[in-house]
């Protein structure tokens, strides 16, 4: 188990009321967003409690990389067990809860649709119910997803766009999203849904597209890999930089009332163009790219990008970097950490 940050309330004379008012719980804390959000909250002098499935099974790579693991308290908690969640909330009396935990792989969701749906919906309901039972004043952030929209007739996507999910993952996220809206409207809970488009960083898991393209391209350059095999790359996505996106999560929770916000760059880029840029930057020939139709998904979104004007107007959050600025950062950081 971790320990409180050296900046956090070590003086026992400080009232527990003040201490608890600056406490946040993060589920999915070992993921990319959880690590960057932990660092941000610690910088803003919050006590951070991280929920993990198991101390033995969890990977703390991101928390260690950002040097925040010893500044948080890690608690084992099964999010499918509402009793455990109730006990954690009663014990730590958080000001806010950020729910970032999910089965987040679109590809895996096609292989495991039931498990994806069960975890991504029941865990959300358990959080909402636990808050309603213990303390309805606790703020709750839900990590919704742009995948919920699927193929739309009109771009850019706004908070009012119709949802037409195209994968089991997207369906599960849409269900969790609507549950949050229902608890906000029916029970008056302060629920904030961040509808984030693709956002990347060095801490991204290896299975995600941009991380995979960069790491495998570097392996090709080194000579340890011959080719890069990919599926459908003639699709377009809206990509942004994760450390900037978690700032939007924090800003949402500072609002007095709950709401939904799209967080995106506002532009889409084809996967083919991203590969071309990475290959050129690293110095790899186009002959190293192989299209494998066996890697195509059963259903695919052709193009998707969002409109972040609501977040800009109400949160003061703006995203100004280009996809190429981000790719340069990620390539440089990946090279710096090569072993």
Description of the molecule:
The chain has 339 residues and is of the alpha/beta class. It folds into 2 domains: 16-199 and 240-263, Rossmann fold; 205-238 and 267-304 and 323-336, Alpha-Beta Complex (UDP-galactose 4-epimerase, domain 1), CATH 3.90.25. It is 42% helix and 15% strand. It has helices at 16-21, 32-43, 61-65, 82-92, 106-111, 113-134, 168-187, 209-222, 242-253, 271-282, 309-315, 323-336; strands at residues 23-27, 47-52, 73-76, 96-99, 139-145, 191-196, 199-200, 228-230, 236-237, 240-241, 260-263, 269-270, 289-291. The strands form 4 sheets. A 7-stranded parallel β-sheet has the order 3-2-1-4-5-6-11, with helices on both faces. A two-stranded parallel sheet has the order 7-10. Helix 6 packs parallel to helix 7 and helix 8 (209-222) runs parallel beside helix 10 (271-282). The model is unreliable at 1-20 (pLDDT under 50).
What's the short story on this structure?
Helix content is 42%, strand content 15%. With 339 residues, it is an alpha/beta fold.
Key structural traits:
42% helix; UDP-galactose 4-epimerase, domain 1; disordered N terminus; single chain; 339 residues; two-stranded parallel ribbon
Task: Provide the fold topology.
Elements: H1 16-21, E1 23-27, H2 32-43, E2 47-52, H3 61-65, E3 73-76, H4 82-92, E4 96-99, H5 106-111, H6 113-134, E5 139-145, H7 168-187, E6 191-196, E7 199-200, H8 209-222, E8 228-230, E9 236-237, E10 240-241, H9 242-253, E11 260-263, E12 269-270, H10 271-282, E13 289-291, H11 309-315, H12 323-336
Parallel strand pairs: 1-2, 1-4, 2-3, 4-5, 5-6, 6-11, 7-10, 8-13
Antiparallel strand pairs: 9-12
């Amino acid at each position: 188990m971790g320990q409180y940050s050296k900046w956090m309330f070590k003086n026992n004379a400080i009232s527990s009321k003040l201490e608890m008012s600056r406490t946040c719980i993060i589920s999915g804390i070992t993921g990319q967003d959880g690590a960057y959000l932990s660092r941000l909250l610690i910088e803003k002098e919050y006590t951070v409690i991280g929920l993990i499935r198991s101390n033995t099974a969890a990977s703390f790579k991101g928390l260690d990389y950002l040097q925040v693991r010893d500044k948080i308290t890690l608690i084992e908690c099964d999010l499918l067990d509402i009793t455990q969640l109730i006990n954690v909330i009663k014990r730590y009396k958080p000001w806010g809860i950020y729910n970032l935990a999910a089965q987040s792989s679109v590809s895996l969701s096609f292989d495991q649709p039931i498990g994806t749906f069960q975890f991504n919906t029941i865990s959300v309901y358990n959080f909402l119910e636990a808050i309603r039972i213990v303390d309805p004043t606790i703020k709750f952030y839900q990590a919704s997803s742009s995948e919920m929209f699927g193929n739309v007739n009109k771009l850019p996507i706004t908070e009012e766009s119709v949802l037409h999910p195209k994968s089991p993952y997207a369906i599960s996220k849409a269900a969790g999203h609507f549950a949050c809206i229902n608890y906000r409207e029916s029970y008056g809970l302060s629920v904030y849904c961040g509808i984030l488009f693709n956002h990347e960083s060095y801490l991204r898991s290896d299975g995600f597209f941009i991380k995979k393209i960069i790491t495998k391209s570097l392996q090709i350059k080194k000579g340890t890999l011959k080719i890069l095999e990919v599926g459908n790359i003639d699709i377009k996505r809206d990509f942004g930089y994760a450390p900037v996106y978690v700032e939007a999560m924090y800003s949402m929770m500072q609002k007095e009332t709950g709401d939904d916000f799209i967080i995106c760059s506002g532009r889409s880029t084809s996967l083919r163009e991203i590969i071309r840029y990475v290959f050129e930057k690293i110095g790899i020939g186009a002959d190293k790219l192989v299209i494998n139709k066996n890697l195509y998904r059963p259903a695919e979104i052709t193009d998707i990008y969002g409109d972040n004007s609501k977040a800009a107007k109400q949160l003061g959050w703006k995203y100004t970097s280009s996809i190429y600025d981000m790719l340069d950062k990620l390539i440089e950081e990946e090279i710096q950490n090569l072993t």
